[in-house]
Design a protein that fits this description.
The protein is of the alpha/beta class. It contains twelve helices and 15 strands. The termini are far apart. Keywords: Amino-acid transport, Signal, Transport.
Length: about 375
């Protein structure tokens, strides 16, 4: 063997050994990347993907080894059975942590599987209160829940919109029914009245029957608990029936796709929605941080942020920070550190967890749409 060849062989061996010394950290993410919420699912997945890519670019060291993060993505189509199948797959693969799922209805049953496997799970778009109230030590979220969201919207409907007649419709999913129930409670707590309660499903396109019934109640406000895939047709059919009521909803209607799905049926200021999270517009540093994130996101994926990708990004970064602080990617070792997260400065704001795994002092953003563009009404905590 020539000297040059020997040198090359030695270099290859060293490179191979160095690669073998890398610490592979598997981060799982599950989202509905097919079906009516696919645009939101892909948005969530891409937020986590951007975080993983940026973590790898930093060249972090954990336990004396170079950390190499790998994102494993699964689609649960918003179906609880597919969600638990994906969760079991990740448990069998012994992933180091999970970001997700997108929906409350899939995250709640999946959380038991992760808990039994000892795998930390951080949700970035799950708002049903039950998610963190099951007693699992592995369950966290970086957004406010529906108790806060529903109560705020209910109060707004009664005290700001002065609605006398309110109709509530939900899609019977864990998310949709949950946020509708909390809105109902918020209305009553503010001294208002829900005159009619209706329900549909998360794949409905014909809502004429429900809306005809609702119209008879002469509503000032119609609240829809569900996602934009049904919220859009609901808005169109409200217009067709001549219903002048304000349309209200949770984060499922607060998406950039909502005006498109409504096909021009939303008048300026007609839709009022709330999403968990938000940046104080008066905090210039926070606003710039979010703008920078959105620019990086668009450059990487060629599309705008839909809704919760900044939160999946932060969730991934919070998980990685806990691993670095614990000097281990072993869930049993970094989980106690993750639970004590306090004051982490993310692109979505400060992140600290309470004893249930909920974010402390979570923000809530009230928005409307004008000329098809989402406009912030205010950020409350």
């Amino acid at each position: 063997m020539t000297c040059l060849a020997a040198t090359a062989a030695a270099a290859a061996l060293l490179a191979g050994n160095a690669h073998a010394e890398d610490l592979l950290i598997k981060i799982g993410t599950v989202n509905a990347t097919s079906g009516g919420a696919a645009h939101l699912g892909k948005d969530n997945e891409n937020g986590a993907r951007l975080a993983v890519e940026e973590l790898n670019a930093r060249g972090l060291s954990i336990g004396g080894k170079k950390a190499k993060f790998e994102l494993l993505a699964e689609d649960d189509a918003g179906d609880p059975k597919q969600g638990t199948t994906a969760a079991q797959k990740f448990a069998d693969e012994k992933v180091n942590g999970v970001i997700g799922h997108l929906n409350s209805g899939t995250s709640i049953p999946a959380s038991r599987i992760y808990a039994n496997a000892g795998i930390p799970q951080i949700a970035a778009s799950v708002t049903n209160p039950k998610y963190t109230r099951q007693g699992f030590k592995t369950t966290f979220r970086v957004v406010a829940d529906d108790v806060h969201l529903g109560a705020t919207l209910g109060k707004y409907a009664v005290q700001t919109l002065h609605a006398k007649s309110i109709v509530v419709i939900d899609d019977r999913t864990a998310y949709g029914q949950g946020v509708a129930d909390e809105f109902d409670k918020g209305v009553k707590a503010a001294g208002g009245k829900v005159v009619k309660r209706e329900f549909t499903n998360d794949k409905a396109t014909d809502l004429m029957g429900i809306l005809t019934s609702a119209k008879a109640a002469k509503p000032d406000v119609i609240f829809y608990g569900g996602m934009d895939a049904v919220g859009g047709p609901l808005a169109r059919q409200m217009k067709q029936l001549g219903i002048q009521a304000k349309l209200m909803g949770g984060d499922g209607l607060c998406t950039s796709e909502m005006p498109k799905l409504a096909a021009g049926a939303l008048g300026d200021g007609q839709l009022i929605c709330a999403e968990a999270g938000g940046i104080d517009p008066n905090d210039k540093a926070a606003v710039k941080g979010m703008e920078d994130f959105k620019a990086r996101f668009k450059k990487r994926f060629g599309t705008d942020v839909q809704l919760y990708s900044p939160y999946t990004y932060d969730a991934t970064m919070v998980m990685a920070q806990a691993m670095v602080k614990a000097n281990s990617a072993d869930p049993a070792k970094y989980l106690p550190v993750l639970a004590k997260t306090s004051g982490y400065k993310g692109v979505t704001g400060a992140i600290s967890f309470d004893d249930k795994g909920d974010i402390l002092n979570g923000a809530l953003t009230l928005s409307t749409f004008k000329a098809g563009q989402k406009t912030t009404i205010g950020v409350v905590r």
